[in-house]
Structures are given as C-alpha cells and as structure tokens.
C-alpha cells in the first residue's frame, strides 16, 4: 500500500505542479530615424543653446550671491564698528593674504599690517587723522600714507 502511494505521488506530482514562471522578454526600442542632416543640426543647435543658457544662469547666480555676501559683510562690519571702542576705519588688500588696516582704538589711530606670518603695528598715525564726515569724500589710503610720511619727514 505504501509503495502504491509513493509511486502514484511520483507520477501525479508533475500534473499537480504549477507552471514555472517564464523569463521576461527583453524589448529593445529603436529610436526614430532622422531623415535629414538638417534635423540633426537643429537638434545639436538646440542642445548647445540650452547648455549656454544654463551656463549663463549659473554665472549670473554666482555673481549675484557674491555681491550679496559682500554687501552683508560690509553692513556687519559697520554694525560692529558702531558699538565698539575699536573701529576699523579702512582696509586695503595688498596681495591675496596681505592687508593694511587703519584702526582706531582708545583715541589712537594705528596702521596695522596683516600677513600669513601675523599682525604688525606699522605706525601710529597723527592725532589729526580722522575719518571723513558723512557726505564728504574720505581721504584715499594713498593720501593718508602720503600725509603720514610728510609728517615724519618734517
């Protein structure tokens, strides 16, 4: 009896089994052919125009962000100077990492140099040195230095 059950299950099992899943078919789509060379040229021109337009938008965005950051930094410096006993009156860049500062601290006006090696007090400017009043054109940095050297010579 046991042998009949085993043999019948062996012969009937393929009939009861489910079908094996079929492999998915791979469909390759062929792009439409372009009949004229002029169509290809227009397509390339459109892509180049689109690329140049995108590049122009990026350049304008970078310039705008740079301008805004400079303006924000300048306003922040003015706000810090208004409430501080140490004021940066003027800053000049001589080289990428070299700067000159005219600083007013405790009623003294100092000319300070900054470089990668550190800060150096170059000189104390004359007591008559003042920032230009509002509405007047301030002295340029070269004029301030000329005045300082004339005071030293005399």
In short:
The protein has helices at 2-16, 37-82, 141-153; strands at 86-95, 98-105, 108-115, 118-124.
How does the SSE layout of this entry go?
Layout: H1 2-16, H2 37-82, E1 86-95, E2 98-105, E3 108-115, E4 118-124, H3 141-153
Antiparallel strand pairs: 1-2, 2-3, 3-4
Summary tags:
154 residues, 3 helices, 21% strand
Structure description:
- It is a single chain.
- This protein has 154 residues and is of the alpha+beta class.
- The chain folds into 2 domains: 41-83; 86-153.
- Helices cover 48% and strands 21% of the residues.
- The chain has helices at residues 2-16, 37-82, 141-153, and strands spanning 86-95, 98-105, 108-115, 118-124.
- The chain is elongated and about 130 Å long.
Distance between the termini: 132 Å
Based on CA atoms alone, the radius of gyration comes out at 40 Å
Number of helices: 3
**Helix-strand makeup class:** alpha+beta
How many β-strands, per DSSP? 4
Quaternary structure classification: single chain
Pick out the low-confidence regions: none
Strand order of the largest sheet: 1-2-3-4
Number of domains: 2
Which range best describes the helical content: under 10%, 10-25%, 25-40%, 40-55%, 55-70% or over 70%?
Answer: 40-55%
Order of helices and strands: HHEEEEH
Query: What is the molecular shape?
Result: elongated
